């Protein structure tokens, strides 16, 4: 397998805090790899170790076969989480500025087209929408035509339309052959974009796999969530596996073709409800399961198997 990036047994502590605790991973060329995990899990520290902006206490990183600080600067780019360029420059001026920092950079016009900002390149950065600003930021990371692009929470704080635009841009970059390593708190984003997802918790890589494999292994069952305060008692003899919170009754393990039957059973039991929603397990469920972040209201199961 042709790897863009290999990390072996990385550890990094800050005083008594262990930010990374023996992380090993490999990212294949052309892959989109999404790193997810709770705040404080060590994501930023891992990105910094992989890009050579921090030195791990132990372990090794290899980017295109070299230590990260020895890699040709044109092959790797990082868009950090907190990146705020000067506001009183136009998008074009900003990209020209960043392009000027490299010995070899791409024509700014090409980058503007690639990020879909050619028509809005003359507006001051401060006048652009959040999504457009972030696209310019991504563009500033593309001026050196990197083969490996690190994006630390690229869509945080952007409205849904801007997020969608940016996702399309990242998908296009990946289609063009760029290897993308991104961190995100947005599970839908990881699910939509990533070939593989890694879940980091307490400095350890808990699980790595394709979104589909992670959901199949850890996402649980599809279920029907009924908005009602009826509790499990009224439905306890139904034969369904149910759980309840103060506001919902959840019927577990309901396949799509069985939704009608379950609704009929609710009505037979005289349960009144505000709404019904059927959900398939998603990466969000995997995250909640593996990161140990299931809510305090996580219900106790009641009822028999069906
Ligand atoms: P994440 O990006 O997943 O939120 P970080 O890598 O920022 O996690 O942090 C992991 C842990 O290391 C946290 O407990 C954080 O407080 C600590 N940490 C990170 N950077 C520093 C630093 N420069 N000095 C001290 N502690 C740090």
UniProtKB/TrEMBL annotation:
Keyword Glycosyltransferase belongs to the record: no
Residue ranges constituting the ABC transporter domain according to the UniProt record: 5-227
SUPFAM superfamilies (UniProt xref): P-loop containing nucleoside triphosphate hydrolases (SSF52540)
Coiled coil: none
Cross-referenced CDD domains: ABC_DR_subfamily_A
Family: Belongs to the ABC transporter superfamily.
Species: Halalkalicoccus paucihalophilus
Molecular functions (GO terms): ATP binding; ATP hydrolysis activity
Protein EC: 3.6.3.19
Transport recorded as keyword: yes
UniProt-listed PANTHER family: ABC TRANSPORTER ATP-BINDING PROTEIN, ABC TRANSPORTER ATP-BINDING PROTEIN NATA
Gene3D superfamilies registered for this protein in UniProt: P-loop containing nucleotide triphosphate hydrolases (3.40.50.300)
Keywords attached to this entry: ATP-binding, Hydrolase, Nucleotide-binding, Transport
Superkingdom classification of source: Archaea
PROSITE patterns to which the protein is assigned, alphabetical: ABC_TRANSPORTER_1 (PS00211), ABC_TRANSPORTER_2 (PS50893)
InterPro entries in UniProt: AAA+_ATPase, ABC_transporter-like_ATP-bd, ABC_transporter-like_CS, ABC_transporter_ATP-binding, P-loop_NTPase
Main EC class the enzyme belongs to: hydrolase
Protein name: Trehalose/maltose import ATP-binding protein MalK
